[in-house]
Amino acid sequence: MDLLRHLRYFRAVAEEGHFGRAAERLRIAQPSLSQRIRRLERELGVRLFDRGSQGTALTPAGRLVLTEADQVLAAADRLAAAVARIGSGAAGTLRAAVPPHLGPAAVAALITGYRERSPGGELELRELTTTAQARELAAGTLDAGVVRHPCPAAGLAFGPVLHQPLGALLAATDPLAAAGARLTAADLNGRALVLTPRADDPALHDEVLTACARHGCTPAAVHEAPGGDFTRALVLSGAPAGAGGAVALLPRTSAGPGTVWRPLAGEPIGWRTSAAWPADGHGPAVARFAAAAHEAMRDHAGMRPARAAAVHPRPASEYPL
């Protein structure tokens, strides 16, 4: 027996005090309504109505059932509404991640944007590298993320790709840090470069070094730094190896005491970033996250639509002699 439907029928009869009017309200035949009420009475083992020529009246058992029925039906309505909100992406918890160095303004804007799009939803956000995100998206422990490209992972779908130019983070005492100086990649030739660890994003790490070589920058050494504080420490210390000290390649950032950030003319080196999710998991909540992430990166991280990738011959300096 569909208990909820039978309770709704029972409540209609109780409120109307008449089987005929209740049947008309419910848009079913009166004999069918009478049969359903009798079945409910058999299931409960009590008589719910005293039937008379002038209508029906609740029995004491019927009055008790009506009170309980109101609570049961209200709870069922709340449950159905909650499930509908989850299904539409307006409620529930979305497990998501962003990569390091996305920037506090962009992360804050992403969180705010998602909350505005999903007022009843919860966003469980972590910081993970692209490699770690791809692994968790495949395992189902992450619903969506923001990844950097190349992202060689099967079974993922991606939002529009945005380009974020990298510049040089230098010690304030570095000759290249002169106010207003706009550097070229070749100006960094022979320096030690500080990059994110290759183990975190191998394809991205290699792509950055390839772009450096293509634009006339062959580093004397490459140092890996997972976080902003360690990166700045290496820059400030000079990270031995390379005339003039170390340079970190990062997007525009708050340089911090003792360092300055300078753009590279022509923006030859950059990161390509987009939202990502399992190809078979693009629900409403994921769509809201992807939209919020794209807007936050565009408006608060200085990113813009990526240009079509140009095809370049690999420079000879990339090959061992």
From TrEMBL:
InterPro entries tied to this protein: LysR_HTH_N, LysR_subst-bd, WH-like_DNA-bd_sf, WH_DNA-bd_sf
Signal peptide (from-to): none
Domain HTH lysR-type: start-end pairs: 1-59
Protein's name according to its UniProt entry: LysR family transcriptional regulator
SUPFAM superfamilies the record matches: Periplasmic binding protein-like II, Winged helix' DNA-binding domain
Alphabetical UniProt keywords: DNA-binding, Transcription, Transcription regulation
Organism: Streptomyces synnematoformans
Similarity remark: Belongs to the LysR transcriptional regulatory family.
One Pfam entry name: LysR_substrate
